[in-house]
């Protein structure tokens, strides 16, 4: 039986002292119900002088605890329903209050963005890190979450390899790198420990990283997804509310076909595509400035037209981009004046425009 039905059944078992079923009392006493894993929060509306204030909360708690999935219950008793608007962010108006609403993680971010790609090695992590830094340099508060649990590369790229996050009051404190708050499974397990993640474990690991990390909140949360269209994509689409996804691709046909598949997968889980980025688009000769399209340029731009999504920009192949990643000092932390640096600035501006709906 799904969780909504279990809650409905639990509520309908509760009766008042006079035998009246709780759910038939008007005006409705059960105002809200929020479920997050094993935790449920129930909001009851009972006037200050209601005799039910004495026993009903404990009765509801006991009944809800009968639900197998639920370990912890919080009962909130209010004298009147909260004013509309006053708490609209935390408790959206509910049409069917007895049905639990699932809470999403990372609600303390203005924009939660998935950085995705169809295949590996196209530079998704490189783009995630450098885009995060560019946004930070533009004055935004940015966090970066490495959800590529199969091949976490952010610890190396952000210069935090081998470091373990501090734990305060049972919460992981993100590692700071060049002004960005980061967390990666790569900072929690030993590098040589082969971790084989399967479906349910993937969900659990991701949820733990989201729930047990003291994410500071801010303007942007950028999530570096593993390549492809698997378990992680599905889990994260259930765990957080995304502003949208950016798809990174190289201009070759093979990469583009996979990029289009990735874009289609996101639309299936109702995550908007904010735009496509073409990486390793061309090579600029550092001596003469001539641009060579190593992988045949503009492919991703054409794919964006086909998919009717914005094209955010093209990043050239640059030695310093690769070196910066390997050495843990990303290009955008180096204060260089280069074509790739300019590309990241353009992409960040375009992304902000897309988010502002301009
Ligand atoms: N624009 C670029 N110029 C030079 N090297 C790049 C560029 N983008 C990515 N790379 C390099 O390509 C490799 C793969 O990039 P990475 O970000 O790890 O890809 P993904 O996360 O998609 O697997 C890394 O060594 C990275 O430094
Ligand atoms: Mg990667």
Q: How would you sum up this structure, described in words?
A:
- This protein has 358 residues and is of the alpha/beta class.
- The chain has 2 domains: 3-102, GMP Synthetase, Chain A, domain 3 (2-Layer Sandwich); 109-356, Rossmann fold.
- Helices cover 33% and strands 23% of the residues.
- It contains 10 helices and 15 strands.
- The chain has helices at 3-13, 52-65, 124-137, 154-157, 199-211, 231-239, 253-268, 299-307, 319-327, 339-356; strands spanning 30-36, 39-45, 72-78, 101-102, 109-116, 142-146, 167-168, 171-172, 175-177, 180-184, 218-224, 244-249, 273-284, 291-292, 311-317.
- Strands 5, 6, 9, 10, 11, 12, 13, 14 and 15 form a 9-stranded mixed β-sheet that branches.
- A hairpin with a 2-residue loop joins strand 7 and strand 8 (171-172).
- The longest helix is centred in the last third of the chain and has 18 residues, at 339-356.
- It is elongated and about 90 Å long.
- The model is unreliable at 85-95 (pLDDT under 50).
- The structure holds adenosine-5'-diphosphate (ADP) and magnesium ion.
List keywords for this structure.
358 residues; alpha/beta; GMP Synthetase, Chain A, domain 3; Rossmann fold; 2 domains; nine-stranded mixed β-sheet; four-stranded mixed β-sheet; 10 helices; binds adenosine-5'-diphosphate
């Amino acid at each position: 039986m799904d969780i909504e039905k279990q809650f409905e059944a639990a509520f309908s078992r509760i009766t008042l002292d006079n035998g009246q079923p709780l759910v038939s009392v008007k005006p409705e006493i059960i105002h809200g119900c929020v479920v997050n894993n094993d935790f449920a929060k129930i909001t009851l509306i009972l006037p200050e002088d209601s005799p039910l204030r004495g026993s009903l909360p404990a009765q509801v708690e006991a009944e809800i605890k009968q639900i197998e999935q639920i370990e912890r219950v919080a009962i909130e008793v209010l004298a009147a329903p909260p004013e509309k608007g006053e708490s609209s962010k935390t408790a959206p108006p509910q049409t069917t209050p007895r049905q639990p609403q699932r809470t999403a993680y990372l609600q303390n971010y203005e924009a939660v963005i998935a950085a995705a790609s169809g295949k590996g090695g196209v530079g998704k992590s490189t783009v995630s890190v450098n885009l995060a830094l560019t946004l930070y340099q533009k004055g935004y508060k940015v966090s970066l979450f490495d959800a590529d649990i199969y091949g976490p590369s952010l610890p190396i790229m952000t210069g935090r390899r081998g470091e373990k996050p501090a734990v305060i009051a049972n919460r992981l404190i993100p590692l700071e790198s060049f002004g960005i708050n980061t967390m990666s499974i790569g900072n929690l397990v030993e590098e040589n420990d082969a971790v084989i993640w399967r479906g349910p474990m993937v969900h659990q690991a991701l949820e733990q990283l989201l729930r047990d990390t003291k994410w500071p909140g801010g303007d942007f949360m950028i999530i570096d997804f593993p390549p492809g269209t698997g378990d992680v994509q599905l889990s994260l689409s259930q765990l957080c509310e995304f502003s949208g996804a950016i798809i990174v691709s190289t201009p070759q046909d093979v990469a583009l076909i996979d990029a289009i598949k990735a874009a289609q997968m996101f639309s299936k889980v109702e995550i908007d595509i904010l735009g496509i980025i073409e990486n390793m688009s061309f090579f600029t000769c550092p001596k003469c400035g001539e641009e060579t399209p190593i992988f045949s340029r503009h492919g991703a731009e054409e794919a964006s037209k086909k998919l009717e999504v914005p094209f955010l920009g093209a990043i050239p192949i640059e030695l310093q981009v690769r070196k910066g990643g390997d050495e843990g000092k990303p290009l955008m932390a180096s204060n260089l004046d280069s074509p790739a640096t300019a590309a990241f600035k353009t992409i960040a501006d375009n992304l902000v425009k897309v988010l502002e709906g301009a």
